[in-house]
Design brief:
Blueprint (H helix, E strand, L loop, with lengths): L3 E4 L2 E4 L10 H5 L2 E9 L2 E2 L2 H14 L8 H15 L4 E8 L17 E8 L12 E7 L14 H12 L4 E5 L4 E5 L3 E5 L5 E3 L10 H10 L6 E3 L2 E2 H6 L2 E6 L3 E8 L2 E2 L12 H16 L9
Parallel strand pairs: 7-8, 7-15, 11-12
Antiparallel strand pairs: 1-2, 1-6, 3-4, 3-5, 5-6, 8-9, 9-13, 10-11, 10-14, 14-15, 15-16
Bound molecules: pyridoxal-5'-phosphate.
Pyridoxal-5'-phosphate binds next to helix 5 and strand 14.
Length: 297
Amino acid sequence: MSRIAYVDGRYVPHAHAHVHIEDRGYQFADGVYEVILLLGGRPIDAGLHLGRLARSLAELAIPAPVGDAALTRIIAEVVRRNRLRDGLFYLQVTRGVARRDHGFPRPAPRPTLVLTARRIPPFPTSLDGWQASAITHPDQRWARCDIKSIALLPNVLARQAARQAGATEAILFGPDGTVTEGAATNIWIVDAEGVLRTHPLGHAILPGCTRAALLGLLERGNIRHEERAFSLDELRAAREVMLSSATSYIKPIVAVDGATVGQGLPHAGRAGPVAQLLFDLFAAHVRAAGAGGPGGK
Ligand SMILES: Cc1ncc(COP(=O)(O)O)c(C=O)c1O
């Protein structure tokens, strides 16, 4: 069955889906995006993603192309037409098509809305094999990383550096050695005192929806946690390192720059106890959304 994309009001075969060459997304990366997970036929944390989309659009003064109800209907229709159960949506909104000129076009063009979807493997049944390795890499991005902008070149270069080093993710750090986040993930550590930490919200990181969901789940548990930045030194001394994203859920990072995480601890080089707990919490969260997961349907 061929994939179907949504482009500006039309459902079209993926192979024939296109936008104009003067789309501001193509010319200036003048747009925003979301990646939403679909498990068991249901979007996960859709409210968080649509909320973040609205915020990103507002920060760039791009009008919403359609309301939330219409967007929810379009997502459901893309699911139906692609006969998806486990997959992910890519949703992109750009400022629209206009004669090339840096300033915002006047009158404002109609924003371009594109949705694509593809299959992914079902939610993992356990953390066996669900792990990553990372390199550290300078954060070379702009000063508004809280906006989910399609301008991803520094993220692309960092991820490629990781790939060339045989690793999965690049953990980004600022000029003062503070870790911000991953090239396409939020980063967590369990520090030497056993406290689970991730960078606080602000302009330096993307407010990850998985991060937000996990923090919400943590409120109900008794894991000591803090939204507090950590340094490269603390990363290297961490008992556990993890990443989170809509497509990776929560994933232990078992080596950083070739060094085993948690050296000297029983779980060295494998998922640690906090990663296991977060994974179990997230699996339950996914099940609660009616989407299966370990022990689910
Ligand atoms: C830079 C960056 N940080 C964090 C994330 C994780 O966000 P989410 O959990 O919403 O997928 C992403 C996801 O693409 C990202 O690109």
